[in-house]
């Protein structure tokens, strides 16, 4: 079984490029060029230097002693929260902006949910002197205000998406419409392993640095490159794709993808796509999709803006169907508890998205001599007001 | 292959008026009335829009009409039910237009079979890729005698236009400029060059220009370069005016034709 994209752009039956003809030339230009450009020595040189000196890579693989003690297994945290801008998202935006420059594009657009991808895009646009427009759902603009402020400070224009549930899906719709209307000068930096081929593969390759480092770092610490478990949260699936990438063909490594259950799988307010979704098409990709019987996309829900998405990347749909990855989910409440736990046990305040991955440590089933790597995708600064309110720290 | 689209273009080379509307808008059961009134007012071809929750290629007007139509309860089975006896009332060429996901959930073969039984002549699914059509669905569409209409844009390379032309029978939907539906900037000079380029290619299928056509002037301009033109958003807007459906349709179509 192959877990990599085939020459037609599919992972098993998932993936492809289901785009209207208006987008065909853009997507085709990218498809024909991305691998070639990514393999050019001067591209790699520029990318590696920026990842090291600007982003701050490699990020540490931290052995978490008190978390390990609590869950009676060896827990390591891959510290993507220590990247510049505070999440894994910048691994991808640095790569894509270098690609955009080589394709001669002057105007950058992006969608964002939690605002981390928006901030990471605004950041690289400031760095490269490019115009930046970020689409963000109205609901997310409200609940992730600190990131909206950061994007504005960085010179990006933040455009509210006001249709549908006013969250990530709708922001993505607006970004795609912008691209249809500006096909020649504009590059669309997608923030996750979603969208038409070649985006899922390209974003996964840019995020793959996460698992590449994990292997080398674990070898140093444990004498083996292979952990027993790799755990990551899944919105569109980019941090998980990066954390899984170099373990996909190592069957003894258990890959655990954690989706947002919202208020509970059966509550009608959830974003657990693998359980609630069916084979369908969203944002140019065939994948698992939450939808009605008639094929209308349903509005997902999660407290975490970055996981509040009715689809999942086609790679993950394939990992789910082929059973290569185990799919778990965590509710809003479990995620919030995991935030407080990590904060108080290890002195690290994680993002709400990341907390979903931490929340499944209790039911992972890892043994005391086994190693678990949790991908700590981002830090919690953007979520502080939610945390203060939930834990009533604002009243003390 | 012989269907109403073929006959229409065989008889008329110029000035064909095609109108799009979203089924289920403004009211769930307006579908038949709109079709019959359009025909009465001299429209040549009708595109019946199947509403989708996330219409990526559409601007605000058709997005909004789709949202209302879905709230009204429009679905593919409902639409087929409404169109069940339509061929006893009109022979105007009918094309169903929508996004792939609802059709895929209904079942593509079942969809083609049902559409063909009713007497639908063509299908437009902008997000069904040409290659997927060729590999998986072309045989089905041919079996059920349905024209599969593809879009081209000013950015579509000549070789791809020729490939599309070779896999289509009916007409080619020439998107006037790089945009979502409903932009009313008129037809830019670049568009004219593109229309002329396509006209010069001597394609086997006639071309019909759509996107941005919203009044008599833009309609006539488009007709100078192709067999006809398609009006969508402007018509959907006209349906929202005060007054009866019949009146709104007649006022709008007459404003285009006279
Ligand atoms: C910190 C963090 N983790 C995870 C995600 C989810 O995205 P993905 O599944 O693409 O990693 C986001 C998205 O905004 C995020 O900000």
Contiguous runs where pLDDT drops below 50 for at least 5 residues of chain B: none
Structural class of chain B: alpha/beta
Tell me the span between the first and last alpha carbons of chain A: 55 Å
Mind telling me the C-alpha Rg of chain A? 19 Å
Task: Provide the low-confidence segments of chain A as ranges.
Answer: none
The mean pLDDT of chain A is: 97
Radius of gyration of chain B, CA atoms, in whole angstroms = 17 Å
- What is the strand content of chain B? 5-15%
For the secondary structure, the number of strands of chain B is 9
- Summed up, the helix count of chain A is 16
Structural class of chain A: alpha/beta
Strand content of chain A: 15-25%
Biggest interface: chains and residue counts?
A-B, 35 and 39 residues
Distance linking N and C termini of chain B: 34 Å
State the share of residues found in helices of chain A, binned by percent: 40-55%
Largest sheet of chain B: 9 strands, parallel
Strand order of the largest sheet of chain A: 3-4-14-9-10-13
- The rough form of chain A would be described as globular
Share of helical residues of chain B: 40-55%
H and E order of chain B: HEHEHHEHHEHEEHEHEHEHH
Domain Tryptophan synthase beta chain-like PALP (chain A): 56-378
Keywords (chain A): Amino-acid biosynthesis, Aromatic amino acid biosynthesis, Lyase, Pyridoxal phosphate, Tryptophan biosynthesis
Family (chain A): Belongs to the TrpB family.
Subunit structure (chain A): Tetramer of two alpha and two beta chains.
